[in-house]
Amino acid sequence: MSTAVAQKRGLGAVIWDYLTTVDHKKIAHLYLVSGGLFFLIGGLEAMIIRIQLMKPDNDFISAGLYNEMITMHGTTMIFLAAMPLIFAIMNAVVPLQIGARDVAFPFLNSLGFWLFLFGGLLLNVSWFTGGAPDAGWTNYAPLSTTSPGHGVDYYVMGLQISGAGTLIGGINFLVTIVNMRAPGMTYMRMPLFTWSVFVTSTLILFAFPALTVGLFLMMFDRMFGSAFFDVGLGGNAIIWEHLFWIFGHPEVYILILPLFGAFSDIFSTFSKKRLFGYSAMVFATVLIGFLGFMVWAHHMFTVGMGPIANSIFAVATMAIAVPTGIKIFNWLFTMWGGQIRMTAAMLWSIAFIPSFTIGGMTGVMLAAAAADFQYHDTYFVVGHFHYVIVGGVAFGLFASLHYWWPKMFGKVLNEKLGKLAFWPFFIGFHLTFFIQHFLGLMGMPRRYWVFLEGQGLATGNLISTIGAFLMAIGTIIFLINIVYTAVKEKKADADPWEHGRTLEWAIPSPPPHYNFVQTPLVRGLDPLWVEKMDGKEGMTPAEPLGDIHMPNASILPFTISLGTFIAGFGFIYQVDDPIWLIAVFAGMGLTLGSMLTRSLKDDLGHHIHKEELEEDIKKGVGK
Amino acid sequence: MADQSHSKPIHHQEYEKKQHREEMKQQVLTFGLMILFTIIAFGMVIFEVNSYFIIPTLIILAVVQVAFQLYYFMHMKNKGHDMVAVMMYGGAAVAALTIITFTSIIWW
């Protein structure tokens, strides 16, 4: 079983290995590849949108297709690109940072991934079956409940399935971080990335149920004739908006918080300094998570909630600027006086600070409820949320990938190409979105298929489109870098950045599949740094060398998820023809049958024996 | 909490036995109270007490029952359940916030 044995295996064996794996490191690869793929699809949709808006009265795509593009761009980027890419980093890094051999529930980890993937595939199948969802990524009723065709049904089923996967993943990381920290790693010694994943997982746990409920109501309204959102039958369309944003606002913190954590680790490593204000950073992270639940209605200032509700949510929203400001200043102070190395990861991180701060500032502007009536549903909003999501999440993902790539794949991404990818993306990003604020202030509404000539919007939109192309070039260079690195670069050391501070840098790159030969003893914040300062080579073990218990691989997560995928089609099409109920029963049968198999069949895992470990140590695994 | 009592010294075993007796007593007492609450609840409905009185009383009884369940039968009163408590109260707070919004903003 030992992965240290390098042997050539057939493609079939590799595919089977990935289909059945419960190893958090391989699941990270799966998340990365599928999230990356959806990122490219979402990016392609963005390019099509920008080409359509390149000049006034353009007819590059039809109005209906444009609606599908904006809907799928938003949905794909949030649910199918950003979320899984974050889960990729979480899976790759968190167990290593806390000194664990895997997550608490490896089987569920795999299940979470396959549910996400099949949900995402289901959503994208809609392109080929007569029209993608077209009611915007927020899917507001009654636009969504009255949308013809099956597009919105795909939205409902796809997000329901992938949302279940995300919820499972979130719970898994909560349990992992609470229970599986190495001896000595108290809460206040956890690296900030782990802390932020912990808070993020809490947000997932509390926020996703609201989406689940909302999607179920939407499903019943569209497929089974209920009227939760139908005003004509006594329903209320605003309920969807509230449920969506009770989920949706925490969701944006779910996206950004893990990357706040990643930036903290990156700044600290490449400044060769301990993170400034560690406890304030932890406090700020928790506070952002807490306040994130109190502000959802700022997306709905114009629906007529009344001045009191609007004021409460406006003030709560502005309050979030305080903990975020604490973080920005702490990152700056971490760098101040540090021995800064401008690696590609650091470049993305430094670029993040001003970019995100601009997004935060426009966020406070939008939070002023009275002013929001002017900005609402204009390109000002589009500019704002792209500044925080691209300038925060996308920059953060690029930075994290550069930083942890050696730990995930055993090779450092080429630095020159990394910086070459950064500049066009960075410049393109600001070209694309900065001008959109002004387009919005000039009155250009979001989600419109065309704009007219002679309204002064043409130049701004052209600049925006040029910027989008620059971002595409940056992304392509990054992809080239991945291939180049895989082919040309040499194998990385355990601690390729030399100043690694946290536990993941104490083990080989990539780690053996049991991660730690012996569980390490943590003696302080930045445990590896503590040992380095004491002049030691690596971590002090907390246990004698002994057999390691590891979980077995299983195909059941795949079949459970495949079942929901099949049942999803059944639910969507049974409206037209009851014969499709066969798919519902077959799919749910597969899902429930697989679950039953899992429950009845004892799977106690396997042991890696001491002798094998000693062999590995001789090859240099343990250090 | 772990049951490795056979490997522990005698006085420790006795201490644990005493703890278990105490625990058992509390559980039986709570169980009795919960049955009593249920009888009261059913009784009030059967004897058609004024609904302005019944509804709040039932809610209070239900909350107490949930607390008994969590703290005595599911051991939240014991040590090492801080995180469980934080998560449960967090979830309850979010749920309460949702209900308050729905009742105050949407359906007022």
UniProtKB/TrEMBL annotation, chain A:
Q: Any keyword Nucleotide-binding?
A: no
- Show where the Cytochrome oxidase subunit I profile domain sits: 10-523
What Gene Ontology terms describe where this protein resides (cellular component)? plasma membrane
Which one Pfam family would you cite for this protein? Answer: COX1
List the pathway annotation: Energy metabolism; oxidative phosphorylation
Check the record and name the Gene3D superfamilies matching this protein. Answer: 1.10.287.70, Cytochrome c oxidase-like, subunit I domain
Q: Which GO terms describe its biological process?
A: electron transport coupled proton transport; oxidative phosphorylation; respiratory electron transport chain
* Subcellular location per the Swiss-Prot or TrEMBL entry: Cell membrane
The entry's keywords:
Cell membrane, Copper, Electron transport, Heme, Iron, Membrane, Metal-binding, Oxidoreductase, Respiratory chain, Translocase, Transmembrane, Transmembrane helix, Transport
Membrane topology type: Multi-pass membrane protein
Q: At the top level of its lineage, which domain of life is listed?
A: Bacteria
Reaction catalysed by this chain?
4 Fe(II)-[cytochrome c] + O2 + 8 H(+)(in) = 4 Fe(III)-[cytochrome c] + 2 H2O + 4 H(+)(out)
Q: Which GO MF terms does the UniProt record name?
A: cytochrome-c oxidase activity; heme binding; metal ion binding; oxidoreductase activity
Transmembrane segments annotated in the record for this chain: 30-53, 73-94, 106-128, 154-180, 192-220, 243-263, 275-296, 308-333, 345-370, 385-405, 417-442, 462-484, 555-573, 579-597
Sum up the protein's function in the record's words: Cytochrome c oxidase is the component of the respiratory chain that catalyzes the reduction of oxygen to water. Subunits 1-3 form the functional core of the enzyme complex. CO I is the catalytic subunit of the enzyme. Electrons originating in cytochrome c are transferred via the copper A center of subunit 2 and heme A of subunit 1 to the bimetallic center formed by heme A3 and copper B.
Q: Which family does it belong to?
A: Belongs to the heme-copper respiratory oxidase family.
Annotated protein name in UniProt: Cytochrome c oxidase subunit 1
Species whose genome carries this gene: Halobacillus trueperi
UniProtKB/TrEMBL annotation, chain B:
The UniProt regions of compositional bias labelled Basic and acidic residues, in chain numbering, are 11-21
Keyword annotations from UniProtKB, A to Z: Cell membrane, Membrane, Oxidoreductase, Transmembrane, Transmembrane helix
GO CC, any one term? plasma membrane
The terms under GO molecular function for this entry are:
oxidoreductase activity
Membrane as UniProt keyword: yes
Please give the InterPro entries that the UniProt record associates with this protein: Cyt_c_oxidase_su4_bacillaceae, Cyt_c_oxidase_su4_prok
What is the membrane topology noted in the UniProt record heading this document? Answer: Multi-pass membrane protein
Provide the top EC class: oxidoreductase
Task: Return the EC number.
Answer: 1.9.3.1
**Stretches that traverse the bilayer:** 28-47, 53-74, 86-107
Its subcellular locations are: Cell membrane
Please give the residue ranges the record annotates as the region Disordered: 1-21
Name of the molecule in the record: Cytochrome c oxidase subunit IVB
Name the species this protein comes from. Halobacillus trueperi
What gene is this protein a product of? ctaF
